[in-house]
Structure formats: C-alpha cells, structure tokens
Specification:
nine-stranded mixed beta sheet; 7 helices; alpha/beta; 268 residues; Rossmann fold
Length: 268
C-alpha cells in the first residue's frame, strides 16, 4: 500500500556528507553523533581526541593506505555493528589508497623470473604492467580512474547498507574540497569547490549518495558553522527542516541539528 508524505516524519538515522577546508572541525563534529566509531584513513585522530577526550566515548581504527583492510572492516560492520554512528574520515584519503593499490597491481607483474636458453634465471620487465611516469612519479591512466570510481562506490554502497534507509546507524563521510574553475564557450569563468578525488566524474557523483551534505566554515570570531544550503561556490543540501546556517562553536553539532527534527532520537 502506498504511503502518504503527510505521514512522513524526519526521524531515524542520517546519511551525511561533511565537507570543507582543513581545520573546520569536520571530524570533531562527526564525533558528536551517538556512539561514534571512526574509520580513520587520514591518520589524524588527534583533533577528535583534543575535543572529546574525557567527555564521551569515541572508538576508532586507523587504516593507512590499505584499501583491502578497509573493505574487511566494512564487511565486518555489515555483519555486526555495535555502533550508533560510523564515520569514514576521509573519502579523499580513500581515493589516494586506491591509487596506491592501482600502482601496486600494475607493478605486481612488472618483474617476473624466467630461464634463458642456458637455464640461467633472469629478470625481465613486462612493459604493459609498468605505471606511466612523469618526472619519475607514477601517474594514473584513463582506465585507472574507472577503478578508483568502482572502489569508492563499493565503500559508499557499504555505507548505505549500514544506514539501511534510516533504520540502521548514522553514517558520516568526511571529504576535503578543492576549487575547480570552469570556462564556457563564451570564455566566462565559474568557480566551485568540488570533493577532492582523482577523477572528476566520481567527485560529481558522490553527493548523490547522501540526503545531508553540509559545508563547514570557520567563523570570523574563530568558531565553526555549517551551511545546509548552497552558498556561492560551496554547495550543500538537506532533507531536514534546518536553518541555512548553524553555528556549533563549543556545542554538539548533533544536538544542534536534532532540535529541528520531529521525535528526534536522543544522543546517548
């Protein structure tokens, strides 16, 4: 039987994207959500510890440059998740770990051993497996961006499973941004700030996965705030009845958001 939107309530868990420049309190804000567990890919849990140590329990695992281990952690959480909030920090570093995996995969077959006609072992290089280089630095090829996109989507799909349409846990993905300049046929320039990944297509696709996408700012007074609707170069969105801006300086962002929700769950 079809449901009516007149009966819809803004309740249940949230699937959120937190984005912004470094130092805008994205990670501490994410940890304000109930029973947080952080998949720390950046290796910078210190900011969360500085803010929340002694105030609330925050669990985390640091996974540096190891995409297979991250997949194992996600699969484990899907089987059994004791946490109220799962935080992926950050999707930008996730992309970098995928780049490393791609280079390793290309290099895995680069060296092989075979015997020459006299039975002596020699090492040869398989040129098809060697990453292209610029100034001695490996660079991504076109097909590599497809691999990056597939890897990111796999993790985002896992996040959606954990969220389970609002019936599972809160899920927050943190992202860093970069300014992108676009020029049209009339040579007019527009600037936006996009999520920092290797490929542009996946950066544009990522926001589609989220109902909530907040952009984080530093306030002139040295505090922190989010915007919930697009503001100039910085895009944002919300499905909740939130104000355009929320200042959460010295406050719990989760509690600030919760006051605008109907039958809001408590932060325990």
């Amino acid at each position: 039987m079809a449901e009516s939107i007149d009966d819809f309530k803004h309740e249940g868990s949230l699937l959120s994207l937190f984005k912004g420049d470094p130092g805008t309190a994205k990670s501490p804000a994410a940890a304000s959500y109930p029973e947080p567990y952080i998949l720390d890919l950046d290796g910078r849990i210190a900011s969360v510890a500085s803010y929340w140590k002694g105030k609330k329990a925050v669990k985390y695992d640091t996974i540096i440059n190891n995409y297979p281990l991250l997949c194992e952690k996600m699969e484990s959480l899907i089987r059994y998740n004791p946490f109220g909030t799962v935080i992926l920090d950050s999707i930008t570093t996730l992309a970098r770990s995928l780049h490393t995996l791609i280079f390793e995969a290309r290099g895995a077959g680069a060296q092989a051993r075979e015997k020459d006609e006299e039975g002596r072992k020699r090492i040869y290089l398989n040129a098809a497996k060697i990453p292209n280089k610029f100034g001695g630095i490996p660079v991504l090829e076109i097909d590599d961006y497809k691999t990056e996109s597939t890897g990111i989507i796999q993790i985002l799909d896992g996040c959606r499973v954990l969220w389970n349409g609002g019936k599972g846990c809160n899920v927050i993905v943190i992202a860093h941004v970069i300014e992108v300049e676009n020029r049209d046929l009339k040579n007019r320039v527009t600037r936006t700030r996009a999520i920092m990944t290797g490929g542009r297509k996946i950066a544009a696709e990522i926001p589609v996965y989220f109902n909530e996408a907040y952009h984080f700012y530093n306030t002139p007074a040295g505090g922190f705030e989010i915007v919930t609707k697009s503001d100039g170069e910085d895009w944002a969105k919300t499905s909740l009845p939130l104000p355009d801006r929320i200042d959460f300086t010295n406050k719990s962002l989760y509690e600030e958001i919760n006051q605008y929700r109907e039958e809001a769950p408590k932060n325990e």
